[in-house]
Amino acid sequence: MSDKPVQGEKRVFMTGNEVVAWAALAAEVDIMYGYPITPQNEIMHYWTRMAPKFGRKFLQTEDEISAGFTTVGGVMAGKKAFSATAGPGNTLFQEPMSMAEMMRIPTVVVIQQRGGPSTATVIYSQQEVTMTTFGGNGEGFRVVYSTAGHQDLYDYTIKSFNTAWKYRFPTFVLADGYQAKMREPLTIYDPAEKGIEMVKPEPFVGRPGMPGVDRPTQYLRNTYNTEVELYDAVMDIAKDYEAAMEDLMEWENFMTDDAETLIVAHGVVSRAAQGALPELRDAGIKVGHFRPITLRPFANEELRKAAKNAKKILVVESAYGQFLKLVKEALYGMDLPIETILRPGVGITSEEIVARIKEGR
Amino acid sequence: MPKSWNPETKPHKFCPGCGHGLVLKVLGDAIDELEIQDKVVFGCDIGCSLLAWDFFNCDSIQTHHGRTTPVITGVKRATPDRIGIAYMGDGGGYAIGSQHLVNAATRNEKITVILVNNTNYGMTGGQMAPTTLPGQKTETSPYGRDPLDTGYPTLGPEMVSAIAREGAYVARGTMSNLRQLKKFIKKALQNQIDGKGFSFVEALSSCPTNWRTNAEATWNFVEKDMADYFKVGEFKAPAKEEK
Ligand SMILES: Cc1ncc(C[n+]2csc(CCOP(=O)(O)OP(=O)(O)O)c2C)c(N)n1
Ligand code: SF4
Question: Tens digits of per-residue pLDDT, B73-83?
């Protein structure tokens, strides 16, 4: 039984779901808990084929509430555990993820967004932004990476396990139905050979020795007796989260230095924005693009810097203003007009963005 | 074609050789024979059962995966003169929705649940279901289901009849004996009409698409492999108890 599923560097052509399964293997994940839902099913399908060959495990649970809580249990037992879901499954995941958020449990969940609300479509959308960034009954102390393609899926799936285990915040990889199902070329690699050290998981419960004698007994709790006690606990987490934010926030700037029009987009839509830039620049339009990679925490200051020469902002998303809210909050107080292309559940092309910016002049 | 079917939505959308169409055929016949088309509220789950959302000329509700039982319970509690039918797959009824099935049976809700057992999750592409047989290969049991690792197939009617009380009707039929299946479904509906108690019918059914079987292998699987494991018959019937 080999324990290095990926050796060296390899150029491959895969679907996004296959990429996630390989990345989880490369990230030394021990166990996946899951429940079938389109468009993430093939993550489980690939995982169940490969996992036994590398001594890794899988459990298919009875629903997503269970998939979330078994993931929490696996992590508390000291294993690198993860799950994947979408749409109504993501809704059910919010209960266990609220627990993970409050108890600082390093869970990792890959979300392949599909069209909502309700059960809706099984295809593409960016409509799980609000739920994934703030869906729990807490303060949203979590990390959300929005990926734009297959290389991202590989890189950030691996990274999410390190983020989760280093900072102890539940971590989400937020992709979508297009990324899940389409094939793209990418490079897969063994993280160790790239100098990426994988953080070793540690048990929260069941450490060696006699509890109360050789080591303190663990009392992990999820309930508080008084408001003040809860306040203190939340403020402690808030302090840690604030302190980690600088390290956690990620973003990309494309020609933002002199941009008078700033396109703000995330995930796969960022690629349409990137694609629109050359034609607009050729037409003499000073346009740039800001792409947040972490939607939580959100790089507010960096967006403001990218917008410093802007006369207007164009927010583009495949949802009805979920991402727009994050952008507005970041820009609060800056006197900038915001235009939008909001297409819930529908893909967005470079051509559409080009046309909008040209007609808006 | 049953009178209660909506002819505008036929031919239906199930794969060729799928058992859902046959189960819905006998359900249609039963609705016709009991003359309850105007009273029925038909609920279907997510899963291939959702393809039946416009199947009947009956008021219908297509709801969330595993939640059809509580939705129909809500309808029935609010309007007890309706005939509530909750139609779902084994994933919907025995996995994600199992707590609802257990609690509706325990409360003896006066609804009729029809659960189609095709030993896999059809709509999501053939993953292991609670009813997958030992050794059976699916997308998430690619090396064959190992009961030591994933447990044994759920015996639904056996479980429901163990928790359901006076007035409940519980049976398992099969698409390979449609006359008998219709009799069971009719009794399950009559039980609700009589206001006696919870009614539950599991129907053994085929999914040739995900099983990747031809006609002969499909029939063999339903008639032999499945019927060996899942015993067909009535598990609980108020009429019998009363005698
Ligand atoms: C909360 C939630 N989880 C998962 C799904 C995805 N899903 C759709 S259909 C299905 C399985 C259906 O299988 P089954 O109930 O056995 O019915 P069949 O398709 O075999 O008739 C699943 C898991 C969903 N829609 N909602
Ligand atoms: S996938 Fe299977 S259960 Fe669904 S319609 Fe096709 S044959 Fe029937």
Answer: 999 999 999 99
Q: Please indicate whether, in this complex, the C-beta atoms of B139 and A63 are within 8 angstroms of each other.
A: no
**Single pTM value for the model:** 0.95
Q: Tell me how many degrees the CA angle B118-B119-B123 measures, rounded to the nearest 5.
A: 65
Instruction: State the best of B65, B88, B99, B159 to mutate against chain A, taking most chain A CBs within 10 Å.
Output: B65
pLDDT at B243 over 50: no
Q: What are phi and psi of A305, to 5 degrees?
A: -65, -45
Residues of chain A with Cβ-Cβ distance to B95 below 8 Å are 35, 62-63
Within 8 A by CB and 6+ apart from B68, the residues are B43, B44, B45, B61, B86, B87, B88, B92, B97
A128, A134, A173: which is closest to A153 by C-alpha? A173
The backbone torsions φ and ψ at residue A279, rounded to the nearest 5 degrees and listed phi first, read -65, -40
**How close A67 gets to chain B, by Cα (Å)?**
11
Tokens linked to B209: 């698409």
A64: nearest CA in chain B? Answer: B96
Separation in Å, CA A185 to CA A13, A301, B43: 4, 33, 44
Query: Which of A44, A62, A118 faces B95 most closely, judged by CB atoms?
Result: A62
Q: How many distinct helices (H) and strands (E) make up chain A?
A: 12, 14
State how far Cα A186 lies from the chain centre. Answer: 19
pLDDT classification of A360: cutoffs 50, 70, 90:
confident
Residue of minimum CA distance from atom 23 in ligand 1:
A36
The finding on whether B199 has its CB within 6 A of some atom of ligand 2 is no
- Point out the ligand 2 atom lying closest to the alpha carbon of residue B15: 6
- Chain B residues touching A45 at Cβ < 8 A: 127, 139-140, 142
Q: What is the ipTM of this complex?
A: 0.90
For residue A332, which amino acid is it? Y
The secondary structure of chain A in percent helix, strand, coil, rounded to multiples of 5, reads 40, 20, 40
